[in-house]
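Example S7 (structure tokens).
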């Protein structure tokens, strides 16, 4: 598979419906000793939201209440679709890195605690004036300390060299994303994505999210709906790849969800097709 297939909305809808079905199948699953299964489900639902919103925007947007014309305002929004594409891809990569890839329970604990601790540290950076907000931040500090202790006592963490351990904990206090031992590119490659998707395409989507000059130029130069759609049609295909992989890894975690795929041969073939595309596509997007 050396070329990206054309975008088919009916296939996208089928994949999205399958995402929702595997999530629904997992309702009622007992939680473990902590909230990690609940957090995994929340990350999965976040991913579904991104994928669904991207399709909604890809059909064009109309705001009837805006009194610019008699019919309101209608437009196509490639920028938001590309930003959603990046968010969806990162949601899948975090899910893979935290919940699926680790080979041992200790490594799973280490990655989950690191991810969780970093989020509490980030919240400390937001000022809060109400007393209840201040109390929440105080309570969060206790959780941060408790998670640091869990990380320090984790056998996987103890096997890291001293410099890497100190650097990880120090950077986690100051930098977003420092909880990861791998770059986004390396996580993507380990998740089975081709370098085109894990590195080059991801960088392209970051350019849109960070309002790079090229994104502004591309919007300015795209004067027709067709040329505007051309700015994000490959992003819709990337989301298809991410959906297929997300379904696959989610079903590795939850048996009830896996049963849904086994009973739907069409969905299984579509998932396998797009996982394959994401792994072996080598041409430039």
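Recovered sequence:
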């Amino acid at each position: 598979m050396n070329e990206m297939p054309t975008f088919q909305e009916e296939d996208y809808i089928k994949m999205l419906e399958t995402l929702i079905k595997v999530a629904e199948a997992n309702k009622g699953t007992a939680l473990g000793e902590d909230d990690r299964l609940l957090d995994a489900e929340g990350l999965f639902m976040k991913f579904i939201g991104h994928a669904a919103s991207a399709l909604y925007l890809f059909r064009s947007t109309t705001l009837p209440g805006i009194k610019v014309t008699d019919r309101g305002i209608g437009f196509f929004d490639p920028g938001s679709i590309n930003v959603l594409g990046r968010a969806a891809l990162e949601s899948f990569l975090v899910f893979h890195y935290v919940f699926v890839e680790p080979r041992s329970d200790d490594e799973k604990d280490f990655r989950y605690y690191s991810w969780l601790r970093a989020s509490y540290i980030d919240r400390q950076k937001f000022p809060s004036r109400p007393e209840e907000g201040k109390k929440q931040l105080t309570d969060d500090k206790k959780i941060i300390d408790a998670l640091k202790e869990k990380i320090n006592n984790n056998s996987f963490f103890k096997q890291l060299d001293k410099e890497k351990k100190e650097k990880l904990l120090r950077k986690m206090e100051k930098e977003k994303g420092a909880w990861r031992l791998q770059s986004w590119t390396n996580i993507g490659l380990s998740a089975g994505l081709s370098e085109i998707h894990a590195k080059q395409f991801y960088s392209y989507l970051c350019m849109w999210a960070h309002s790079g000059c090229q994104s502004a130029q591309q919007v300015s130069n795209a004067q027709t709906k067709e040329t505007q759609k051309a700015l994000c049609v490959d992003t819709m295909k990337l989301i298809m790849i991410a959906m297929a992989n997300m379904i696959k890894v989610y079903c590795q975690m939850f048996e009830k969800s896996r049963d849904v795929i086994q009973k739907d041969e069409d969905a299984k073939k579509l998932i396998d097709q797009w996982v394959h595309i994401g792994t072996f596509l080598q041409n430039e997007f």
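Notes on this example. The chain has a mean pLDDT of 89.
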